[in-house]
Structure formats: structure tokens, C-alpha cells
């Protein structure tokens, strides 16, 4: 859906999550780590309300800098940008599209934008079953004290071997930066916009990385479908919530 056209995020979320859950155990976990350079494409999921465009408003330069930040990490491939926003001016809308950024949603509240972004994340993974083919750069804030499934989905993608990258505000506490289990790279927003380098991982994250590699090897040997089971659980919870809402609506009628 493009522009201001609306959908039912909950129904679509359940449908695509179900399809993902059924296919996740057919992915290609590998026993060995990839070696750079990494030839894979990246999709940037950018909430322009959570993370406003740089002050100079030059979105061509912004896209170039973000692409350079990715190439600095030795990832080589196409970088495409998906944008989500609330109220945008005509000028902002024109500049976004002029820069080649796909404006998928506007005029939407935070929860609706987040749900739509999660749909697009799942769909991207669904069409790229091999984790070596696709990277995710998520520039969208979570909703405090709400179970939005954002980090659950990021964790499932990491367990399947995808590169999941995350963006945090410049003043975000270092102690709350997502660990390697959720995101392999994390940038502060202004640093990413300048084409800079991600936050250095802590020692504990390095240990988590080694643990994750070992766990993936065991997963291959045992034929585990842990990622599929977790995503199925997410789907079941969303489906239950949807059913409850439908029951409430019927009762009200």
C-alpha cells in the first residue's frame, strides 16, 4: 500500500506471520560464519517521525551517507529505503520521493506505523529465505511498556542468521542498547546520517556472539525449528488478540 491508503494491520500481521512461521524452518542456517566482503542487499525501514531527516533536508545526501555507513561494515549490495510517517508537508513528501525513497505510509499514528513496518520486515524475510541475501536496518522506535513484537521479531530473524541492524537516538543510554541477540549493529542516529560507524559492542555482547554461533551449530545438528516456533507463538498471540477484539465488537452490536 502506498501513501495514505490504509489497511488492517492486525489481520495482515497475522496472515503474513503465519506464512513466515510455516516457512522459517526451511531457512539456511550455516555452520560457518561468512567472511567479508558480504554481498547482500539492505532494506532500510525508516520512521521519519521518530527519526526526522537531517537539518539540511538533503535526502540524496542522507541516502548516500547511510549507504556509506553500511559499506564501511563491508556489506556490498543495493540499499533501498522504505519510509513511514505521520503528517507530512507537501514539500517533505516531494523530497522523499525525489530521493528515491518509497513512502509506504503517512498520516498514521505510532502503533499503526510500527505494525505496518513489522509487516514489511516479515515480508522482506519471506521473500529472502537465505539470510545471506538480505539485511534489515530498522530506524523506528519501540512503544514503551507495550508488547509490540518488535524485538521478538528481531530476535527470531537473528536466530535464523539474518543481519538485523538498529538505530537509537543520540542520547539513548548505552546500557539499554540492544544486544547481539537482537541486532548485530546499532547506530546512533546522527552518526548514521553522517556515514559513521556503529556503537562498539561490549564484552558481554562479544560473548553473546560466540554463544549464538555455537547455538546455531547445535540447531543445525538437532534439526531445530526454534525460530519457527517463536514466530508461531507471536502469530497465535496476535490472532487471540484479534479474536477478542472481534468478540467485543459483536457484543457491542
TrEMBL record:
<feature type="domain" description="NYN">
    <location>
        <begin position="42"/>
        <end position="168"/>
    </location>
</feature>
<dbReference type="GO" id="GO:0005777">
    <property type="term" value="C:peroxisome"/>
</dbReference>
<dbReference type="GO" id="GO:0004540">
    <property type="term" value="F:RNA nuclease activity"/>
</dbReference>
<dbReference type="InterPro" id="IPR021139">
    <property type="entry name" value="NYN"/>
</dbReference>
<dbReference type="InterPro" id="IPR024768">
    <property type="entry name" value="Marf1"/>
</dbReference>
<feature type="region of interest" description="Disordered">
    <location>
        <begin position="203"/>
        <end position="253"/>
    </location>
</feature>
<dbReference type="Pfam" id="PF01936">
    <property type="entry name" value="NYN"/>
</dbReference>
<protein>
    <recommendedName>
        <fullName>NYN domain-containing protein</fullName>
    </recommendedName>
</protein>
<dbReference type="GO" id="GO:0010468">
    <property type="term" value="P:regulation of gene expression"/>
</dbReference>
Amino acid at each position: 500500500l502506498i501513501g495514505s491508503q490504509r489497511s488492517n494491520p492486525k489481520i495482515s500481521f497475522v496472515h503474513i506471520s503465519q506464512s513466515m512461521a510455516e516457512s522459517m524452518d526451511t531457512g539456511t542456517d550455516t555452520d560457518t560464519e561468512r567472511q567479508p566482503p558480504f554481498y547482500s542487499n539492505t532494506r532500510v525501514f525508516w520512521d521519519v517521525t521518530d527519526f526526522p531527516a537531517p537539518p539540511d533536508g538533503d535526502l540524496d545526501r542522507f541516502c548516500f551517507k547511510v549507504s556509506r555507513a553500511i559499506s564501511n561494515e563491508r556489506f556490498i549490495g543495493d540499499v533501498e529505503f522504505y519510509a513511514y510517517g505521520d503528517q507530512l508537508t507537501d514539500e517533505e513528501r516531494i523530497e522523499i520521493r525525489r530521493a528515491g525513497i518509497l513512502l509506504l505510509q503517512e498520516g498514521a499514528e505510532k502503533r499503526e506505523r510500527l505494525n505496518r513496518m513489522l509487516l514489511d520486515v516479515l515480508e522482506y524475510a519471506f521473500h529472502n529465505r537465505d539470510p545471506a541475501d538480505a539485511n534489515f536496518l530498522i530506524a523506528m522506535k519501540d512503544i514503551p511498556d507495550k508488547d509490540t513484537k518488535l524485538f521478538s521479531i528481531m530476535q527470531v530473524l537473528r536466530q535464523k542468521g539474518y543481519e538485523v541492524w538498529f538505530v537509537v537516538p543520540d542520547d539513548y543510554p548505552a546500557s539499554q542498547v540492544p544486544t547481539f541477540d537482537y541486532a548485530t549493529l546499532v547506530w546512533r542516529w546522527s552518526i548514521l546520517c553522517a556515514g559513521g560507524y556503529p556503537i562498539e559492542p561490549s564484552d558481554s555482547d562479544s560473548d553473546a556472539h560466540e554463544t549464538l554461533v555455537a547455538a546455531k551449530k547445535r540447531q543445525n545438528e538437532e534439526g531445530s525449528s526454534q525460530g519457527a516456533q517463536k514466530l508461531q507463538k507471536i502469530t497465535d498471540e496476535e490472532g487471540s488478540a484479534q479474536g477478542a477484539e472481534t468478540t467485543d465488537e459483536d457484543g457491542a452490536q
